[in-house]
Write a structure and sequence with these properties.
mainly beta, five-stranded antiparallel sheet, four-stranded antiparallel sheet, 11 strands, 38% strand, flat
Amino acid sequence: MVDAKFPGVQVVVPANPGSAVLYGAALYGTSPSVVGSRVMRYTYGFESNLLLSDTRFRGIDESAYSTYIDTRGNKRLRDGFLIMIAKDASLDANKSVSQIISPTTPAQTSMCIRIFSSDSENPIVTHEKGSRLIGDVTIHFAAGTTADFEVKFLFGTSEISVTVTDSETKIDVLPSSADDEQVERVLDDDGTV
C-alpha cells in the first residue's frame, strides 16, 4: 500500500517496528540531547496591540478587524497575534526567541501576557479560528515606569517555557503575585498548559 503511494522509492520496514519505537524512546529518555532540533507543530506567540503599519498587515481588510489610534497617533490592531515562531519552522533544541515589550501609558501598572498557539502559519488576531489560549502571565510594576520587558520563549526538546525579564536590570519580573509562585510557566509540546 505504501509502495503504491511512493513509486520508485524503496520503502524500508523494520523487522520489529515496536522495538524500533521503544529503542528511540529509551534513547531519548537517557540522552535527550539526541534531539538536535524541532519543527514547530503550531505557531506560538502572544497577544499584542500591533502597529498596522507593519509589513505583515499590508493588504489586509482593516474593516474586518478592531483597530484604534494610540496616544502617539499610530493605528493599531486590537488582539493582534505577535508571532514568536511560526508553524513548520525549524529551531535548534534548547534555543530561545524573545521580544521586547513596554507599557503603553504612564498610568499603566501591570501587563497581562496572554500566550497563544495557532494552526495557522500567519495568524492575524488571537481570536481567529485555530488559535488557542495556552496560558497567561501578569507582571506588575510602578506607575510611570519606562522599563522594557523581554518576553522569552525557550523551546526545549519536549516543552516550551516562557519567562519575562526586566530588560535593564536583567531580573525576572515574575512572579507578580504576593505568594512568590514559580517564575516560568511550562507548556506541553501540544500547546496546552
